[in-house]
Amino acid sequence: YEQVEVPAQGYLAFAKSGKWGLVDERGAVLAPPRYDQISCFSQQYFSIWEGSRQGLITRDGRIVLAPVATDIQIEKDSLICFEQDRKWGAATPDGVIRVLPAFNTYQAMEHGFIAWYSESGAKAYSMNCRSMITPAFADGFYAFSPRYLLFKKNR
Questions:
Q1: Of 52, 11, 15, 47, which Cα lies nearest the Cα of 34?
Q2: Tell me, what's the pLDDT at 144?
C-alpha cells in the first residue's frame, strides 16, 4: 500500500493508486480502493468520499448511502438524513431511500416523527412506520404519542 491509516480500532484504511479502501483486522477487503477518502463516521459507519460528496458504509463494508451527500445526520440510529444538491432526503440503515431529497430542511419531533419542510409546506415521516404518513402538505404538526400525530392545514 502507498499509505495507511487507522480510522477505527480493528480497521485499516489504505491507499492504492491514489484511492482509498478499507480492510478489517482479518485482512478482508471491506471497500476496494476507489474513494478519495475514508474516515470513521460513528460506531456503526464509515464515511466514504468522492470529491466533496460523502456516503456511508457499514462496519462490514455494505454501502448504505452512495457518495452523493454534502451533509449527513443520523436520527435516533434509525434514519440517515442526507443533503444532496441543497435538498434533504433520508435512507434507512439498510440503504433504502425512504424520503427523496426534495426538502429544504427537516426537524426531528417527539415520539419518532420527523417533519420535512419545503416551499409547498411540510410532510411528516414516522420512524415506526418507516414512511411518510401525511397524505398532503400541511402547515404544522403536533406529535402527542408514538401512534398519533395531529397536523394542521390552513385553508
A1: 15
A2: 85
74: β partners: 80
Q: What is the tens place of the pLDDT at every residue in 132-145?
A: 998 788 888 888 88
User: Percentage helix, strand, coil, to 5, in the chain?
Assistant: 0, 60, 35
The single-letter DSSP state of residue 135 is S
- Assigned C-alpha cell, 72: 449527513
DSSP-assigned letters across all residues of 68-126: EESEEEEETTTEEEEEETTEEEEE-TTS-EEEEEEESEEEE-GGGEEEEEETTEEEEEE
Give the chain's residues under pLDDT 70: 154-155
